[in-house]
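Hey, resending since the last one bounced:
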Amino acid sequence: MATDNSTKTKKKIFLFGKRAIESLPTPETGKRAVYRDERNQYLFLRVTPTAKTFFWQKKVKGKQHTVTISKYPAFNADQARDQADIIAADYVHGTDVQAEIRAERQEMTVGELWADYRVNRKRGQGVISEAYEYLYNRHYVHWKNKALSDISYDMARKLILDISKDSRPRAVFLA
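The structure tokens again:
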């Protein structure tokens, strides 16, 4: 097992594989160990008393970027290498993976949109009627924590069909 002297913390380098990863010693509580893959210089394994986690790390344009890939054994070493290659390719093409992850966390949810709508409704349109509150609480509240971009056409279509099955028919008069 070689060591990487190019960084402040010493990282042990070895070829990631099932036997090698499973035989790693568990550090004391409050401590962690970091290992680097021999095949992919940007793939690392962080070992704590409770978990082993793969992550990608590289300096890009003078700034250190770290992206968590997955915990072991949910991902094996080959899957982690493949994911590290995908992340590296994204950075080569100008995509900041960390920024995308942050933006995804900050994306508005259905519940936030509803709250914003209730507060910022234009004056003159009045307050939200009880009927709208009822419809939201009856049909949309289960989407409250869902990001807007996670709602697909098929999900919306299914909800509309469910609502139409649930409602009673009404007579429509044409003038």
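Residues 110-166 form one domain.

Sorry for the duplicate.
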